[in-house]
Amino acid sequence: MYLSVIGSGYVGTTIAVCFAELGHDVVNVDIDQETVETLNGGEAPIHEDGLADLVAEHAGPNGTGRLRATTDYEAILETEATFLCLPTPQRDDGSIDLSIMRAGAASLGETLAAKDDRHTVIVKSTVIPRSTTDTIAPTVADAAGKTIGADLGVGMNPEFLREGSAVRDFLNPDKVVLGADDEQTRDVMAAVFEPLVERAGNPAVVETDTKTAEMIKYANNGFLATKISLINDIGNVCKEFGIDAYEVADAIGLDDRIGEQFLRSGLGWGGSCFPKDTNAIIAAAKAEGYDPTMLEAAVEVNEHQPKRLLELLDAHVDVAGKRVAVLGLAFKPGTDDVRNSRAVPVIERLAARGAEIVAYDPVAMENMRALDPDADIAYADSAADALDRANACVVVTDWDAFATLDEEFERMAEQVVVDGRRVVEPRRGMTYEGLTW
Ligand SMILES: NC(=O)C1=CN([C@@H]2O[C@H](COP(=O)(O)OP(=O)(O)OC[C@H]3O[C@@H](n4cnc5c(N)ncnc54)[C@H](O)[C@@H]3O)[C@@H](O)[C@H]2O)C=CC1
Ligand SMILES: O=C(O)[C@H]1O[C@H](OP(=O)(O)OP(=O)(O)OC[C@H]2O[C@@H](n3ccc(=O)[nH]c3=O)[C@H](O)[C@@H]2O)[C@H](O)[C@@H](O)[C@@H]1O
């Protein structure tokens, strides 16, 4: 099929190149000229394992030609279905901001006004229940001067990929959720995903309506975020008793009703989605008159973890005027994304204490510098350089590279290490504190 994907970020680029890999022809529409030129040059605009090879294979001068990018929405006219992969950030009050989705939907509708045959729009972005039917579909239809159902189908297909394993996750899903409110749209969505379902060994295909598909996404993220906050809450209890929360987690993970994944207690969750999606569904539920206590508690525990890390540091070092090494800036290993990274509140608290901050991350330093250009942070070329003459070290991201550090700690003025991610091996002469172990 000939598909269009609006938005070429972590999700849009990943699904566009994977759809090309699956045999579809794809045009990626983005407003960012640099992103478009990077893709058309056969290079990946984001750092994701396996993405660069697929982009080189399908886009650019030496590619199959199945993927191209443009800033021109008109390119959508020749396609059969369009995925909307636009940002759905949070407002200051935590509620979802659909303004970018509405802008993209309006541009899409204006373009579709010139199309004669039926077109299918598939919302990929994470949107609160009823957004597709009450906001996005009407915006497209009004701008196109078309009728939902007759000449316009609008469906919802939530995405579950994780950053750092985006390509692998998309090509090996545990489920494909097809949210549609009419059979014709559902059939088009099933046809789009048919090559993926076949290649991925027949994962579950969940066919439902659009608002249920929207909710499945929030429930998925809400459950995962709450699972992490629960193991962090239990981890904080363990710490008070001098118990290793990881030993406890290993044991309870053997119960297949709990499962061993997402039991790594520590600094908690960051990223572009868990924070905004938990806040968005909380705000949406409250607007409907229900107060989701558990989800609110998950957010509260998560916000507490950076504070606990600094309390452990304070117990060993008064960092005022002292050099503190921050190891890790990305919100998790395997990505250069710093959106809502736990490094941000940790660095804020260190700065508030008057510490001299020197940070290192294998790939995310440029993004952190761009996120907060005025921050008084020195950036080191290596973990060893960050540790040089430091009076303390806090570990924020569980990069594998930090697990092998050993004699580098000799360069510290004082070997005080507070580990937020259970990644550093304690060594002789080191004052080591684990956040929940
Ligand atoms: N990042 C992730 O791991 C996942 C994100 N999602 C959801 O997918 C959606 C997109 O997220 P990301 O890909 O992370 O966003 P992103 O910020 O990485 O990419 C968004 C892209 O849209 C482009 N854009 C903005 N306005 C536009 C417009 N009017 N027309 C065309 N392009 C426009 C931007 O230039 C950017 O390239 C969000 O709703 C997010 O919650 C869902 C699953 C995973
Ligand atoms: O909607 C999204 O954007 C995505 O959000 C998460 O994916 P992602 O945020 O990329 O990364 P995760 O691997 O889920 O980690 C999220 C955060 O939880 C933290 N985490 C994860 C696992 C764990 O055991 N403990 C823990 O603290 C990580 O450090 C990270 O800060 C979900 O896992 C994806 O399924 C979803 O599609």
How would you describe the overall organization of this protein?
It comes from Halarchaeum grantii. Keywords: NAD, Oxidoreductase. InterPro entries: 6-PGluconate_DH-like_C_sf, NAD(P)-bd_dom_sf, UDP-Glc/GDP-Man, UDP-Glc/GDP-Man_DH_C, UDP-Glc/GDP-Man_DH_C_sf, UDP-Glc/GDP-Man_DH_dimer, UDP-Glc/GDP-Man_DH_N, UDPGDh_AglM. Belongs to the UDP-glucose/GDP-mannose dehydrogenase family. The chain has 437 residues and is α/β, with parallel strands linked by helices. The protein has three domains: 207 residues, NAD(P)-binding Rossmann-like Domain (Rossmann fold), CATH 3.40.50; 76 residues, N-(1-d-carboxylethyl)-l-norvaline Dehydrogenase, domain 2, CATH 1.10.1040.10; 130 residues, Rossmann fold (3-Layer(aba) Sandwich). Helix content is 41%, strand content 14%. The strands form three sheets. The protein has a six-stranded parallel β-sheet with strand order 3-2-1-4-5-6, sandwiched between helices. The protein has a six-stranded parallel β-sheet with strand order 11-10-9-12-13-14. Helix 13 links the parallel strand 10 and strand 11. Helix 1 packs across helix 3 and helix 4 runs parallel beside helix 5. Uridine-5'-diphosphate-glucuronic acid (UGA) binds next to helix 8.
